Amino acid sequence: MSDRSAVRGSGRNQPRTSPATFYRQVVAELRKVVWPTREQLGTYFVVVMAFVLVMMTFVSALDLAFGKFVFWLFGGNAS
């Protein structure tokens, strides 16, 4: 199987989908989505923000530690 047939599919004579049909298919798929409730969205927001803050603190601490180590290693003034 060549790369072209893997990307395009096996049917070469299939007509292209019109923009209107594509839009209708997109809307139909979006109606199948289970959207989160307002409470779930609030909970997800808090969890994501807490995780981001923890990771920012962790990365900042590593940056500070490595920076001080490099200044110490090369004889600079780390303060």
Structure in words:
- This protein has helices spanning 3-8, 19-32, 38-73.
- The protein has three helices and no strands.
- Helix content is 71%, strand content 0%.
- It has 79 residues and is mostly helical.
- The chain has a domain at 36-79.
Question: Which structural class do the helices and strands define?
Answer: mainly alpha
Shape: elongated
Counting DSSP E segments of at least 2 residues, the number of strands comes to 0
Mean pLDDT: 87
Hey, roughly how much beta strand do the residues contain?
A: under 5%
Number of helices: 3
**Topology order in helix (H) and strand (E) letters:** HHH
Short synopsis of the structure:
The chain is an all-alpha fold and 79 residues long. The protein is built from three helices and no strands.
Would you spell out the secondary-structure blueprint of this structure?
Blueprint: H1 3-8, H2 19-32, H3 38-73
Task: List key phrases describing it.
71% helix, 3 helices, elongated, 79 residues, mainly alpha
